[in-house]
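tool=predict chain=A
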Amino acid sequence: MIVATDRLQSALNAHLAGDLRKAESLYQKLLQSQPGNARVCYLLGSLYAQRRQTNLAVAMLRRAVALDPLLAEAHNNLGRTLEDAGDKDAAQDSYARAFTLAPGNPDFACNLAALRETLGDHEMALGLYDHVLSQTPDHADAHWNRALIRLRGGDFAGGWPDFEWRFAAPGARRREFSTPQWRGEPLAGKTIFVHAEQGYGDTFHFVRYLPWLKSQGARVVFECHDGMKSVLAGCDGFDLLTEWSEHWFDDHFEELDCQIPLLSLPGIAQTETNTIPAEISYIKADASKEQYWGERLTEIAGGAIRVGVVWAGSPNQKNDANRSCRLTDLAPVLAMDGAQFFSLQRGPAARQIADCPHANLWDLSQELEDFADTAGAIANLDLVISVCTSVAHLAGAMGKPVWTLLSERACWRWMRDRDDSPWYPTMRLLRQQILGDWAPVARRAADLLAEAAASAKP
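tool=predict ok
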């Protein structure tokens, strides 16, 4: 490796400090005097990649590996840049070269494993993660990604232990408690504090485990996200329901024997695909809300088939660009005669209705004040069609027919190569085959809806 000169060190310092303009200028001056300096090419190419200047980045990183074929870091960054540009085959070659040159570098192995997994080579990906963990047992990314592969493949027994590494992954946030975490010891006569984590959909998904917890003789206190208390109030499995903003734990922690994050319960329950608590309708709409929305939707739809639609999740979710579509993508579905569609969409994406009006799409976004209203509306629908959002989980938890439209990069819980879900008996999964291509998914949903409408006619 070339020894850094004072000018190279100055460029590196500027780069690390985030002054990319100064760093670029210094790198370029160095290349004018040292055009064969592979390391400077690598650093400048990495800078271009940071700025999403893909063509410049690829050209400079290729120049680096041509000058020094043994520069593993350059091969790795070239792979990352090519993957971001959508050239997975070339990216795989670069990642593989980096791993071959530096098999002890866990990040290089993880990059190759992640790409192999997206290409469908799950066994090779698992082998690479095993390799990383044999050398670096505490590598959080390797544990977490191995968990996702195993859970997607139905290997729940192998997946749940690694799933506990989710809090150690980069960017994850774990709440710290003085109260010890429950690890499965006897609970009879004890008080346990269960706290929600991640998104609303995760709470709808895993609140099913609270009755199992309660059956062990525990007093269960469940803390949910703000805004969920009204819709969960009628659920079984807890003695006390509180929300984050009520800060119940701060005033009552001395009453507790143990605590646990909600999504850790399936692992302690040793859940397998055939032992999932899949009771239909473990969340029920409030009776008064159900009555109100029954009258409201009848007023609008009359006797037509009633279909709720949701096309986007929270833009803050890291996979939202993949999991969400646009209202225009659902045009084949909304074109069906004889159905009244109701938008259950909330948030910024609800504004798409103004730009894409449909005569048979009624916007409920201004009328749905909280999840209790959404549940009341869902209770009076014949079907919900939704991308992977909290509404899909809520409809499934209520036992309503729900068709969930999935990205090619779908969440682990939907598993692989199946159109049903062991988590929700009334759910059908409609999957993308090509990332970002919603057209075949929408056409399939439209065809299925037409078939359902035809079979419902007397």
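The chain has a mean pLDDT of 93. The longest helix spans residues 439-456.
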